[in-house]
Amino acid sequence: MRAALAFFALFSALLFPATAGAAPIAVTVSIPPQKYFVEQIGGSDVTVTVMAAKGQDPHSYEPTAAQMESIARAEMYCTIGVPFETQWVPKFRSLNPSMRVVDLLGAIPRIEGKPDLALRDTLPGKGRNRHDEHDHDHDAHGGHHHGLDTDDPHAWLSPDDMAKAVPVIVAALAEKRPDRAAAFAERGAALDKNLADLSARIRAMLAGAKTRTFLTFHQSWAHYARNFGLREASVELEGREPGPKSMAMLMDFAKANNIKVIVADSMTGRSAVEAIANNIGASVIHATPLAEDWPGALLEFSGKLAAALGAPQ
């Protein structure tokens, strides 16, 4: 990929005239991790605005008036497939028709919304198995924001997947500032190497893990699991603590799949997580999947996960 980026930079520099004293490219992104990638490639040639910033939920987010004013001035918007984009990106386009919209998921292999393992599969009509005899209560099976029939958009949690988005960002920035194409390509190549190094470090952390399955209550780690040869077992709780029947189902499910680790984020009710962990004898790892310090947060999470999965320390 580095050779391709270098060729693209040379081609762009020859094809387009230089633009002296051009202002930084105003780029808007949906979530904080995207800011890291655009800034790593754009450097001082970009200014990046995050729509659903720290502490905001990308599922229910709505832009402020000030952010809409920022959209009106933006040259580029980078999407990543989070839920609010479906409703709001068309409105952003209407407000600013000249704004380039760049899909960072376009180059990344999709993962359908259905996780590797899910208690939702045991509900009536989803196939018969050893849970069919249960009189299910449905407090642990509410609808999810993404749904089981949609793609999992959380590609930013996989270094290998995000490496595929690097040339997309490089090309989009070079289109806006052709005279800076070489700089974008050089930074893109450096980021590509850093992503490969990060992926290798995490694989080394996870090597020798006694189990490779973890449980989540917000279906968001499928790309990470694919990257590192793990399995994400996902159950949807909608922030609620499961009732007795659902807890019994969870305990059976955890035992059958040798689940000893729960990955939780701010979208999962803490009381529900603690109740389930206590009942199935699992350790809990609290993740920050929307951190702006993307590599730092992913390394910290991976170290905790590796230890919990029984990898040699």
TrEMBL record:
UniProt KW keywords: Signal, Transport
- Region described as Disordered: spans on this chain: 118-151
Record-linked InterPro entries? Bact_metal-bind_prot9, ZnuA-like
The signal sequence is: 1-22
List, alphabetically, the SUPFAM superfamilies matched: Helical backbone' metal receptor
> Which GO terms of type biological process are on file?
metal ion transport
Q: Name one GO molecular function term.
A: metal ion binding
Q: Which domain of life is it from?
A: Bacteria
Q: Where is the composition biased (Basic and acidic residues)?
A: 130-151
What family is it from?
Belongs to the bacterial solute-binding protein 9 family.
Q: What is this protein called?
A: Putative Periplasmic solute binding protein
Source species of the chain? uncultured delta proteobacterium
State the organism's lineage: Bacteria, Deltaproteobacteria, environmental samples
